[in-house]
Every structure is written in structure tokens, then in C-alpha cells.
Amino acid sequence: MKTKILNRDTIKYIAVFAMILNHTAHVFLDENTVLYMILIAVGHFTAITMCYFLVEGYTYTRSKTKYALRLLVFALLSEIPFCMAFTRHKVISFAGLDMLFTLLLCFFICLINEKISDTAEKTLAYILILIIACILVCDWGFMAPIFTLLFIWSKGDLCKTKKAFALSVILFGIYTLIGESGTFTVQSIILALLCMIFMALSGICITQAYNGKKAKRGARFSKWFFYCVYPAHLLLFALIRIFILEA
Predict the structure, then answer these.
(1) By three-state DSSP, how is residue 2 classified?
(2) CA torsion 76→82→83→86, rounded to 10°?
(3) H helices within the chain, ranges in order?
(4) What is the tens place of the pLDDT at every residue in 47-101?
(5) How far apart are CA 236 and CA 131, in angstroms?
(6) Which residue, 105, 112, 129, 110, is CA-closest to 57?
């Protein structure tokens, strides 16, 4: 179809750009500004997009072991820059585990789905992953594992994938307003709605414009770019914050 104009790498590049805008707001902007709210919301395109492609990638990767090791290695490389970037008025303090640790937990959800056949054991394993995500204070919390479970359930079926995105957006909205903030100020409601809109835009891109293919050129570059840009931009942001803004 002519509407299927976006390949996997293009959507990932959009997600990376959205993530950088989100982190720009977190690190450099005042929370009470309109620009802050917009950039924070834009970044919510990223989490659900990456969960979708992780589930898809799990099915076609040549080596699941290497896939998991890449996530682990870059999660470890990213953790100090992550904490440095999100520490306020200090050089570094613990700010939670970075998003690649969360994606690694999501990878284990895919592994559990593949390897464990018993329903009760599988359910307990899923619950354990959700608990670990909360205890370890992972970026995106337990929402990313839930997104992953929904995309596993959809199994690439277009109708189910649309439902998975819709349910993810609704659950995130409830979590943001009740589970995370616990307040119902006008600002919190507007921010939650904006975040839900950008999550829905991810669903539109993937269900309506994604052609199911990777880029014809530069696929290897893209693969490593997506891993390297995460710790690199966090380190850059941290150095700017520490040595320029707070010098």
C-alpha cells in the first residue's frame, strides 16, 4: 500500500529524536513551562515504539543471546551517564536504572513467553519481572513490560496490534494520573493527555505507515547508532549540566 511508507529504521530514528527532546526537557528546562510539557509529551512516542520493535526484533534476531548481551552491555555503559544527566545540583546520584535495563527486562518477558509453556508458571514469571522493574526503579517503570506483553499477545495481527496500542495508551493515562502523580491538577491532566496523544501517534505510525521492512541502506550503521546514541547523548547532557550550567 502507498500509505506504508515508513521502514523500521525511520520510525526508530523518529523515536530517538523524540527521546532526546524528552531528555532535553528533563535536564535543562523548568517544569512549569509550556515547552517543558510539550517536549516531555513528545518523548512518550519512544517507549512504546521501542517495546513494539523489541518484540518484533526478538522473533527475527539470529542470536537471542547476542541480542540480550548487547542490551546488557549498553545498559551498563549508559547507567553512569544516565544518573549524571538526571542528577540535580550534584555531580551524580542514583536516578534509577536506564531504559536499556528496562528493555532487557522486556526481552526476558519475550523469552519467558517462548520457553515456558505452563500458564501458571508463565504468569508468575511475568509478575516477577513487573516486581523487579518496580524494585529496581527502572526507567518507564512497569509500564514497558506491560506494553511488551500486549504486543506479544497481538502476534503481529493488525487488529490486535491496534487494540494493544489503544489499551497501552489508556493504561498509561490511568497510571500517570493515579499511580504516579496521585494528583488531578489542570497541568497534570494536560500533560497526561499530551503524553497519551504522542503514544497514540506511535500506534498510528506502526499500524498505518510501517511497511514491515528495515532500511535498504545503512542497516548496520542504524543498528549500532540506536545503541550508541543513548549513552552518548546522556553523557553530553551531563557534561553540559555539570560544567556549564552549574559551574
Answers:
(1) coil
(2) -170
(3) 8-28, 34-42, 44-60, 64-86, 99-115, 119-135, 143-154, 158-174, 186-204, 219-240
(4) 999 999 999 999 888 899 999 999 999 999 999 999 999 987 777 889 899 999 9
(5) 32
(6) 110
What is the Cα–Cα distance from 20 to 158, expressed in whole angstroms? 29
Dist. CA 133–CA 90, nearest whole Å: 26
In the block, cell 505452563 appears at 118
Q: Where do we find the cell 499477545?
A: 153
By the 8 A CB rule, do 48 and 168 touch?
yes
Q: What would you measure as the largest C-alpha separation in the chain, in angstroms?
A: 57
Residue 229 grid cell: 546514541
6 DSSP β-pair partners: 210
C-alpha–C-alpha distance, residues 184 and 224, integer Å = 41
